[in-house]
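Exercise 7. Given the encoded structure of a 309-residue chain, write a plausible sequence.
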């Protein structure tokens, strides 16, 4: 039985399509909250940057203009919390199980702690997947193929350092603006997990996609801390449990949607897919290694060493 008046209304903005792991997780959370509260708790979801985009969503959360966000871990550097860039280190995680070991361990608490200073509360981690490199002009096989290319990156100094190490020019830009910038030739290429590449229709504006899996893209679910502190205990518990369920669902979807996106790209046929050999991946790994030193210089070598271990 749905009530006429919701008791609690939350807003969640995000920048990608509804059929991405994050989009699906958000609508699952919406459904779980509605069902389990019998309509008393309503979550409004704004996908595709329709309410806020990368540049302003964290600020909107701090003001309380939205209650929940799920930014990629690469976007927290804007707050001056560079530790999240550890996830951007190239060739860090062998697989998703390795990611789980980090986000379900002691690290989670340590990573979320600095967010409190910014009025934010970290509630959980969500996968998207591994990133692959694309370009319009030529296949990206060897490190020297990147030389001189303008590559769109998320606002992470570590990802920028990774591109510079390859001799490319990193261009930080909102996700929402990326497809257009690729279409206009403002940037030549980019890196993405397959779900974002496909749902963002980047295969229409890029010619070559190298399945490099050189980096990881995941998210943190964050809440406005004041909002959270004022929640009545039963609602807080309801949201916590629904969130854990929605995240588990989102992680399963991340795997499924990635396979779907790959199949869809193959069927579509417009983009040329390149499968790097182990030697090519090793050459890329070596060329990108300076990104570790750049981050270690900013946050201390201890963190980088511990993360690698
Ligand atoms: C990007 O900007 O490429 C991603 O962080 C977008 C997203 O939210 O998955």
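Solution.
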């Amino acid at each position: 039985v749905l009530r006429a008046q919701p008791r609690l209304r939350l807003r969640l903005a995000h920048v990608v399509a509804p059929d991405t792991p994050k989009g699906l997780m958000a609508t699952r959370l919406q459904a779980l909250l509605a069902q389990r509260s019998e309509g008393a708790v309503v979550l409004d979801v704004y996908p595709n940057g329709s309410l806020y985009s990368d540049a302003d969503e964290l600020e909107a959360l701090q003001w309380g203009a939205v209650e929940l966000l799920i930014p990629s871990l690469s976007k927290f550097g804007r707050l001056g919390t560079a530790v999240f860039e550890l996830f951007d280190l190239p060739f860090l995680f062998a697989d998703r199980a390795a990611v789980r070991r980090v986000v379900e361990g002691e690290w989670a608490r340590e990573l979320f702690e600095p967010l409190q200073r910014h009025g934010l509360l970290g509630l959980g981690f969500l996968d998207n997947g591994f990133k692959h490199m694309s370009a319009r002009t030529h296949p990206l096989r060897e490190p020297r193929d990147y030389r001189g290319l303008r590559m769109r990156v998320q606002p992470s100094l570590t990802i920028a350092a990774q591109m510079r190490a390859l001799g490319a020019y990193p261009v930080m830009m909102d996700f929402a603006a990326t497809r257009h910038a690729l279409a206009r030739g403002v940037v030549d290429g980019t890196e993405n997990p397959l779900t974002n590449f496909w749902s963002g229709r980047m295969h229409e504006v890029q010619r070559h996609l190298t399945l490099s899996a050189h980096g990881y893209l995941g998210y943190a679910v964050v809440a406005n801390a004041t909002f959270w502190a004022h929640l009545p205990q039963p609602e807080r518990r309801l949201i916590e449990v629904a969130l854990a369920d929605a995240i588990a669902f989102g992680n399963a979807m991340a795997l499924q949607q990635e396979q779907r996106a790959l199949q869809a790209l193959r069927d579509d046929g417009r983009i040329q897919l390149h499968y790097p050999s182990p030697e090519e991946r090793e050459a890329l790994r070596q060329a990108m290694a300076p990104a570790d030193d750049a981050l270690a210089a900013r946050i201390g070598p201890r963190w980088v060493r511990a993360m690698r271990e």
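Remark. The first helix runs from residue 21 to 36. Students should compare their own answers with the one above.
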